[in-house]
Specification:
Elements (H helix, E strand, L loop, with lengths): L9 E7 L4 E6 L3 E4 L7 H4 L10 H8 L9
Parallel strand pairs: 1-3
Antiparallel strand pairs: 1-2
């Protein structure tokens, strides 16, 4: 293997938008992420829309989701 061609692989601090932090290894020193296992709906069991582009609202508007009968 050639020397001095690989990036430095060291410990990295990851910070989520929910405030959770943890340490892992990466080629960058700090990472800022939008969602992690502490706030992801799959792991928490709580229903939460994870939508940054307005796709949920677009779907609801397109199919008139807000005016449907409930129950």
């Amino acid at each position: 293997m050639k020397s001095d061609i690989h990036p430095k692989y060291s410990e990295c601090e990851v910070t989520c938008s929910c405030g959770s932090t943890f340490t892992t290894r990466s080629t960058v020193d700090k990472l800022h992420i939008d969602i992690c296992s502490a706030c992801h709906p799959f792991y928490t069991g709580q229903m939460k829309y994870v939508d940054s582009a307005g796709r949920v609202e677009k779907f609801q508007k397109k199919y008139n989701w807000g005016a449907r009968k409930k129950g």
